[in-house]
Amino acid sequence: MTTTSRFTDPTKAVFRNARLLRLQRGWTAQKLADLLTEAGRPTARSVVAKQEKGFKQAVTVDMLFALAHVFEVPIDALTGDGPLCQNCNDTPPAGYQCNLCGLTSHPSR
């Protein structure tokens, strides 16, 4: 029996959620990199971009704590799979697409 868990790929969850939090705040990848560096976790913009696209190695504990500090959120907000889009709660109205998550709801027929 195979089960699917939100912990199957924690790195993907962390960087997906970090991207959503970054976009909600209107921050560029450079701004996030600068804030992480100021928080004691030197990070280049290219690293942020690669992490968000899944091209970097597994998330480290120090990066997880730095992201939580910079976004001022509990670690659960980064590791969990709960809704982060405050406008649509990850479910936009029928016929619309969420600017944060890209989800499109189709009208009922």
Describe the structure.
This protein is mostly helical. The protein has a domain at about 10-80: Orthogonal Bundle (434 Repressor (Amino-terminal Domain)). Helix content is about 45%, strand content about 0%. It has five helices and no strands. It has helices spanning about 10-25, 30-40, 45-55, 60-70, 75-80. Helix 2 packs across helix 3 (about 45-55). The longest helix is centred in the N-terminal third of the chain and has 15 residues, at about 10-25. InterPro entries: Cro/C1-type_HTH, Lambda_DNA-bd_dom_sf. One of its GO terms (molecular function) is DNA binding. This is Helix-turn-helix transcriptional regulator.
Please provide a brief summary of the model.
This protein is mainly α and 109 residues long. It has five helices and no strands.
